[in-house]
């Protein structure tokens, strides 16, 4: 009965079922009631909607609609009323902003990726490109006169994008990135303690939060720590690098990247997130459980990234390159690192990453392979008795090996470098034709042999030190220790 009366008289059914304070929704409905009334009434009848049922039904109609017809009616209303007084336009502009933000949030909550892309595309390529529609954005209040209102109110730290990251929905997060949305986690304010202050509490040196929403700040950081955000950010940067090509081609050798990937590499970001999360938890203990959760998620993400390697060569390439190692270690130390990602994994206590098959294989080859001849020591497949005899021989011949190593290094420093042509000819020869170097000369080119020597010498020193403590009157221990 109610639907019949509504359909016969446009706008006559405006009552408790069709109430809203949003002028854009109300105006679009009144202006095109023949289209909206039956559809909204049907949604209200068959769908449970919390809050304002009319606004919820109106939003659901736009989100579930496969065409742009509801959005076109909104455009028509705004264009028709774009010449109103400034006070009315300010109110319409504010309600339009609320409508756009709510549509994005509802699309994310319903996990409707198609609707999300449709609304993002409509706002970017229709609203912002139309002069009358874009004029509304000029009425949005901004904290800075030099800041774009659209970026400040819509694209920066958008709640719908944050929610998509919390859901770890890669497809939705990528859609936001493609239309220029971003989460600025660098400007998040964290309470810090002044190490130079003395008796901070006693002297009443309290801090003022200044209206900072710590929960929202944490949600920003939490969103940027999610794997979906990191991968989508990397994919967006990669698409920009290859935008001049028709399609992605892995065989392109002469491609020069426009910029570096220091802040987009997902694996690097995962390790950095762990450091950042730990620092955040120190000053915000109430989020300790959430921080621990994100640490575990980033650790598992790093392991999953390593699982995607098809060959040991790919794994070796990943482990030996880290774009932001300078953030964890000093430059002198990083220059000597063979596998910086493993070092960072040790620092972050990511045992699963270090214990991964690829990591263990790379470390085993590095440990058992000669740095001069390329020969590999058969350590793992050798019997325990054979290993014991070998270690004993290394112990007995240690002085002889050390002398040869010292002489070899002295000769290498004094010898003139051969000509470049001779090096090229030698490198072009097969490995079997090269001159085989003496076993004693190349003994310490095996990291395993150096490890055995260090362990044995350390045990000897420890033994003499203990003996000197137990027998302080023995005159031979002190000179030996020195």
So what's the overall shape?
elongated
Number of helices: 25
Main sheet properties? none
Structural class estimated from helices and strands: mainly alpha
Number of DSSP strand runs: 0
Q: Provide mean pLDDT, rounded.
A: 77
Q: Report the radius of gyration as a whole number of Å.
A: 34 Å
Helix fraction bin: 55-70%
First-last Cα distance? 105 Å
Order of helices and strands: HHHHHHHHHHHHHHHHHHHHHHHHH
Runs in which pLDDT lies below 50 for 5 or more consecutive residues are 1-16, 419-435
Strand percentage, roughly?
A: under 5%
Layout of SSEs?
Blueprint: H1 2-8, H2 23-31, H3 33-46, H4 53-64, H5 69-80, H6 86-109, H7 113-127, H8 131-137, H9 149-155, H10 159-166, H11 170-178, H12 214-224, H13 227-241, H14 266-283, H15 288-307, H16 312-319, H17 331-334, H18 340-347, H19 351-354, H20 357-368, H21 384-396, H22 398-414, H23 420-428, H24 447-470, H25 477-481
Helix pairs in contact: 2-3, 2-5, 3-4, 4-6, 6-7, 6-10, 7-11, 10-12, 11-13, 14-15, 16-20
Descriptive report:
The chain is mainly α. Helices cover 61% and strands 0% of the residues. It is built from 25 helices and no strands. Helix 6 runs parallel beside helix 10 (159-166), helix 10 packs across helix 12 and helix 16 (312-319) packs across helix 20 (357-368). It is elongated. It starts with a helix and ends with a helix.
Structure keywords:
single chain, 482 residues, mainly alpha, 25 helices, elongated
Would you kindly provide a brief summary of this structure?
The chain has helices spanning 2-8, 23-31, 33-46, 53-64, 69-80, 86-109, 113-127, 131-137, 149-155, 159-166, 170-178, 214-224, 227-241, 266-283, 288-307, 312-319, 331-334, 340-347, 351-354, 357-368, 384-396, 398-414, 420-428, 447-470, 477-481. The protein is 61% helix and 0% strand.
């Amino acid at each position: 009965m109610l639907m019949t009366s509504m359909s016969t008289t446009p706008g006559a059914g405006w009552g408790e079922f069709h109430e809203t304070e949003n002028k854009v929704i109300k105006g679009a409905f009144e202006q095109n009631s023949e289209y909206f009334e039956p559809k909204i009434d049907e949604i209200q009848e068959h769908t449970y909607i919390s809050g304002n049922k009319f606004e919820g039904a109106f939003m659901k109609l736009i989100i579930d609609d496969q065409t742009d017809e509801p959005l076109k009616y909104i455009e028509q209303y705004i264009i028709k009323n774009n010449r109103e007084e400034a006070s009315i336009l300010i109110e319409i502009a504010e309600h339009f902003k609320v409508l756009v933000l709510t549509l994005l949030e509802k699309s994310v909550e319903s996990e409707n990726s198609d609707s999300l892309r449709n609304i993002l595309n409509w706002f970017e390529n229709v609203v912002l490109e139309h002069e009358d529609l874009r004029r509304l954005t000029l009425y949005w209040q901004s904290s800075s006169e030099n800041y774009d209102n659209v970026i400040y109110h819509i694209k920066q730290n958008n709640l719908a994008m944050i929610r998509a990251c919390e859901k770890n929905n890669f497809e939705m997060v990528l859609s936001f990135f493609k239309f220029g949305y971003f989460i600025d986690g660098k400007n998040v304010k964290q309470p810090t303690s002044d190490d130079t202050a003395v008796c901070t509490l006693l002297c009443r040196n309290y801090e003022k939060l200044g209206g900072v929403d710590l929960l929202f700040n944490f949600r920003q950081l939490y969103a940027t720590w999610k794997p979906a955000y990191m991968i989508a950010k990397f994919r967006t940067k990669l698409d920009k690098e290859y935008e001049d090509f028709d399609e992605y081609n892995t065989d392109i050798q002469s491609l020069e990247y426009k910029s570096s990937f220091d802040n987009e590499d997902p694996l690097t970001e995962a390790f950095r997130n762990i450091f950042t999360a730990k620092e955040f938890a120190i000053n915000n203990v109430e989020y300790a459980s959430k921080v621990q959760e994100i640490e575990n998620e980033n650790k598992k993400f790093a392991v999953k990234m390593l699982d995607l390697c098809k060959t040991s060569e790919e794994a070796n390439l990943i482990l030996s390159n880290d774009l932001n190692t300078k953030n964890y270690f000093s430059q002198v130390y990083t220059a000597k690192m063979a596998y910086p990602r493993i070092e960072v994994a040790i620092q972050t206590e990511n045992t699963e990453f270090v214990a991964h098959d690829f990591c263990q294989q790379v470390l085993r080859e590095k440990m058992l392979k000669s740095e001069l001849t390329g020969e590999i020591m058969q350590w793992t497949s050798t019997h325990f008795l054979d290993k014991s005899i070998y270690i004993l021989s290394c112990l007995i011949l240690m002085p002889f090996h050390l002398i040869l190593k010292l002489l070899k290094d002295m000769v290498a420093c004094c010898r003139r470098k051969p000509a470049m042509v001779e090096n090229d000819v030698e490198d072009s020869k097969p490995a079997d034709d090269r001159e085989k170097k003496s076993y004693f000369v190349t003994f310490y080119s095996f990291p395993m042999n150096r490890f055995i020597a260090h362990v044995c010498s350390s045990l000897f020193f420890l033994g003499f030190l203990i003996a000197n403590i137990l027998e302080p009157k023995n005159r031979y221990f002190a000179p030996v220790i020195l």
